[in-house]
Automatic annotation (TrEMBL):
UniProt keyword annotations, A-Z: Cell membrane, Membrane, Transmembrane, Transmembrane helix, Transport
Keyword Repressor among UniProt keywords: no
Any one Gene Ontology molecular-function term assigned to this protein's record: transmembrane transporter activity
Protein name as catalogued: Ferric enterobactin transport system permease protein FepG
Membrane association type: Multi-pass membrane protein
Native organism: Pseudooceanicola marinus
Highest rank taxon of the organism: Bacteria
Chain segments annotated as transmembrane: 75-96, 108-127, 133-151, 163-187, 207-226, 317-339
C-alpha cells in the first residue's frame, strides 16, 4: 500500500509504515554530515589529509601531534557542532509544529535568549563551569517557556501567531535584561560573556560534548515519540480533541522537551541562530512529507551546523570567526525569504 507515498512493511504480526523519500533524505544528510566531518577534522592550522584523519581515528596514526590535535581539539569541536545542530533542528521542528508557524523557532520566540540569560548571569557574576552553565541555561530557559505559555494561553489560545508574537516580546525584554547584566559586570567577565554570546565552537572540549550529547539522549527520544501527536495537532486543536488527543498535555510535554534541548545546545555553543529556524522547513521541502520532521530535521540540522563551521574556518579572512556570525548572516537572509514569500507564513 502507498497512501501519500508511504510504504507498509509487514513481518509476521509486526507492521512498519515508512516513507521512502524521507528515508532517502535522512540517509543523504547522514552521508553529507560524515563527509563534512572528514573535511573539518583535516581543516585548521595543521592540515591533515583524509587518509591521515582516518588513520588517527582508527588508532593506527603514527604522528603524536596529529593524534593530540584530533583527540583534544578537533573531535570535541566536531561532535559538539553535530549534537548542537541536531538538537536545534529537532527543537525547531517541535516549536514550528505546535505554533503552526514557520517563525516558531526557539531563537525567534525568545527561548534561546531565555536560556542565554542564566548562562550570562553565571558568566558575569558566578564561577562558571561547563555543567554549571548548562544548569543555569536550562533553568532560565524553562522559566522563559513557562512565561510564554502562560501569556499566550490567556483567552484559551496558545498557538499560532499569538505564541510567536508573545515569544518575540518576551525575548525583547530578556535582551534588555541581558544587556543590563553585561553592563553591571567586570570588564574581563563581560568580554568572556560577549564572546560566548556570539556563538562559538572555539575551545570546545569533551565536557561540552557531554552537555549537548546528554540533551539529545534525554530529550530526542521523547520528541520522536511525540511526533505522531504533533502531526495530529497540526490539523487544529478542535480536530485533535475530537480524535482523543490530550492537547494541553501534548503541548506542555513538547515545550518542556524542546526547551531542554535548546537550553543544553545553547549552553554548549552559545546562542546559535538560523539552524532551528530553517532546518525543519528544509527537511519538509526535501522529504515532501506531512509528518513532523524530527529525525530528518536533526540530521539536516547537523549538516547545516557542520557546513557553517567549515565556512567559518575556510572563509574567515584570517580571523577566528564565531560560528554564530555565519549562521546569523544566513538566518537573516532566510528570514527575509520566508517573510517575502506569499505562503511563507502558515
Amino acid at each position: 500500500m502507498t497512501p501519500g507515498g508511504q510504504r507498509l512493511l509487514r513481518v509476521g504480526r509486526v507492521s512498519l509504515l515508512w516513507r521512502p523519500r524521507a528515508l532517502a533524505v535522512g540517509l543523504g544528510a547522514l552521508m553529507l554530515a560524515l563527509g563534512l566531518a572528514l573535511l573539518l577534522l583535516g581543516t585548521g592550522t595543521m592540515q591533515l589529509s583524509p587518509a591521515q584523519v582516518l588513520s588517527v581515528l582508527s588508532g593506527s596514526g603514527q604522528d603524536p601531534v596529529a593524534n593530540r590535535i584530533l583527540q583534544y581539539v578537533r573531535l570535541p569541536r566536531l561532535l559538539t557542532a553535530a549534537c548542537v545542530g541536531a538538537a536545534l533542528g529537532m527543537a525547531g521542528a517541535a516549536f514550528q509544529s505546535i505554533s503552526r508557524n514557520a517563525l516558531g523557532s526557539p531563537d525567534v520566540i525568545g527561548f534561546t535568549t531565555g536560556a542565554a540569560t542564566g548562562a550570562i548571569a553565571l558568566l558575569v557574576f558566578g564561577t562558571p563551569g561547563a555543567f554549571d552553565t548548562a544548569a543555569a541555561a536550562v533553568a532560565t530557559g524553562m522559566l522563559t517557556a513557562l512565561a510564554v505559555l502562560l501569556l499566550s494561553g490567556r483567552g484559551g489560545a496558545g498557538g499560532g501567531y499569538r505564541l510567536v508574537l508573545i515569544g518575540i516580546g518576551v525575548g525583547a525584554v530578556l535582551i534588555g535584561l541581558n544587556t543590563l547584566l553585561l553592563a553591571k559586570g567586570a570588564l574581563d567577565r563581560v568580554m568572556s560573556a560577549q564572546l560566548w554570546l556570539a556563538g562559538s565552537l572555539n575551545a570546545r572540549n569533551w565536557g561540552h560534548v557531554w552537555i549537548a550529547g546528554t540533551g539529545l539522549m534525554l530529550f530526542a527520544p521523547v520528541l520522536v515519540a511525540l511526533s505522531r501527536r504533533l502531526a495530529v495537532l497540526e490539523m487544529g486543536e478542535d480536530m485533535a480533541r475530537q480524535l482523543g488527543l490530550p492537547v494541553a498535555a501534548t503541548r506542555i510535554m513538547t515545550v518542556v522537551t524542546a526547551v531542554g534541548l535548546t537550553s543544553l545546545a545553547t549552553a554548549a555553543a552559545g546562542p546559535i541562530a538560523f539552524i532551528a529556524l530553517a532546518t525543519p522547513q528544509i527537511a519538509r521541502a526535501l522529504s515532501r512529507s506531512s509528518d513532523v520532521p524530527m529525525v530528518t530535521g536533526a540530521l539536516c540540522g547537523a549538516v547545516l551546523m557542520l557546513a557553517a563551521d567549515l565556512i567559518s574556518q575556510v572563509a574567515s579572512f584570517g580571523l577566528v570567526m564565531p560560528i554564530g556570525l555565519v549562521t546569523g548572516s544566513l538566518g537573516g537572509a532566510y528570514l527575509l525569504l520566508v517573510l517575502t514569500r506569499r505562503d511563507g507564513l502558515r
